[in-house]
Specification:
This protein has 396 residues and is α/β, with parallel strands linked by helices. It folds into 3 domains: 27-136, ATPase, nucleotide binding domain (Nucleotidyltransferase, domain 5), CATH 3.30.420.40; 147-238, no CATH class; 243-386, no CATH class. It is built from 13 helices and 7 strands. The strands form 2 sheets. The protein has a 5-stranded mixed β-sheet. A two-stranded antiparallel ribbon has the order 6-7.
């Protein structure tokens, strides 16, 4: 394969796309293997079966723009179509290329076909593969969120990291007490009564007392940090363009502000899903399958989709164990919502509770399987409700 070298002529970065005539030549499918400090590039022309390796450039947007200008100088009439795998670099690169007026998609690494016998993996071979598959139409781009939507998603994911840290610190404290045969006899941990019990503990040695107090201070600090995250989330949702969809999803039992905002921030515009089954598959809530001939075998959930949204639905699904009822907090959340939304939320309560009772019980499905089935059907109601609400108009 021929390798093209880049020159070192500096090019000033540009933030806005420059107007140019519509390309009339063949399309160039360009695979990018993106890393922190470098990007490997390969080109697959639409009028050829070969894949050409361009080379390796720096990882900055200025270097990418320099490459774009060079390839346009060599192929002035060609349409440029870029693709790269999702990774730590996120979405700024796809937004930058689209801002220059070129097509670009981001693909899920687990959805890129790979030959079972291929044991050689390099940056250039990965770029070749992306360009070749993109030309063949075998790659499907993932949803690229708007910057403001991604900002709220970053807030929610940062909050989840703090929640995980708090859970880990609580487990460490419990293990510390268990090693010293200190057992809390109450029914629920981390209640005011449990915290008073912890404050009364006196260890036999100063070093142990210091370790205990530091663990308790860490848990307290993480709890305060979570409170700050929740307060900021309430302010951010109030001015978010998807606030109507968040408020509509809060009409569902078990879906408070946190879970509703997580679902919308992670899933984006649900209008892109034409059927509920597409959303269920995207969330990884459908069973895996390995069938051949007349033999059909189904396994556990695929779990191939968005894990944050899937966990939010599973948490909400536990609330449908009890019979359908509009509690005072739920009634308050439903105030001012359209009749179609509240009717759908009530139907969800009625149907999902019946589904839970139908699947659970002696000799039937295990509890995790039942909750997963309820969460799968709950995603269908999320799809139906969110599609009824339109976002706020963007300011400016």
């Amino acid at each position: 394969m021929k390798t093209y070298k880049l020159n070192s002529t500096p090019v000033e970065p540009q933030n806005k796309a420059q107007p140019h005539a519509a390309p009339s030549g063949p399309a160039l499918f360009i695979g990018l293997d993106v890393h922190n400090d470098s990007i490997a590039l390969s080109i697959a022309p639409s009028d050829s079966t070969e894949v050409r390796r361009w080379g390796v450039i720096g990882g900055t947007h200025e270097q990418v723009q320099r490459f774009v200008k060079q390839i346009q100088a060599v192929h002035p009439d060609a349409t440029l179509k870029f693709c790269y795998e999702a990774g730590p670099r996120g979405f700024p690169l796809v937004r930058f290329l689209r801002g220059l007026g070129h097509e670009c998609i981001v693909v899920c690494p687990s959805r890129v076909p790979r030959a079972p016998g291929d044991r050689v993996k390099t940056d250039r071979r990965d770029a070749d593969q992306l360009a070749r598959l993109h030309r063949a139409g075998e790659l499907k781009g993932i949803h690229v969120p708007e910057p403001e939507d991604e900002a709220l998603r970053d807030l929610l994911r940062s909050r989840d990291q703090v929640r995980r840290a708090q859970h880990r610190a609580r487990q460490q404290l419990k293990m510390f007490l268990l090693r010293h045969n200190l057992r809390y006899t109450g029914t629920t941990s981390w209640t005011p009564a449990h915290l008073r019990y912890l404050a009364k503990i006196k260890m036999p040695f100063p070093a142990q007392q210091f370790a205990l107090q530091e663990l308790m201070n860490q848990i307290t600090a993480l709890g305060q940090q979570l409170e700050r995250f929740d307060a900021q989330l309430e302010r951010e949702v109030a001015g978010w363009r998807w606030e109507p969809a968040v408020r509509a999803l809060m009409s569902l039992r078990g879906v408070g502000r946190l879970n509703a905002a997580t679902l919308i921030a992670e899933l984006g515009d649900l209008q892109r899903f034409t059927r509920p089954a597409e959303l269920m598959s995207y969330l990884g809530l459908v069973p895996s399958e390995h069938s051949t001939g007349e033999d059909r075998r189904q396994g556990g959930l695929t779990k191939m989709g968005n894990g944050y949204a899937r966990r939010a639905l599973v948490e909400a699904a536990h609330h449908y164990r009890v019979s359908a009822r509009i509690s005072p907090p739920l009634q308050k959340r439903q105030e001012g919502l359209p009749q179609g939304v509240t009717d759908c939320a009530w139907e969800a309560q009625r149907r999902l509770h019946h589904r839970y009772r139908q699947l659970s019980g002696p000799g039937r499905k295990k509890a995790p399987v039942v909750i997963a089935a309820v969460a799968r059907e709950l995603s269908g109601f999320v799809w139906a409700i969110a599609r009824q609400m339109k976002p706020h108009e963007r300011k400016g």
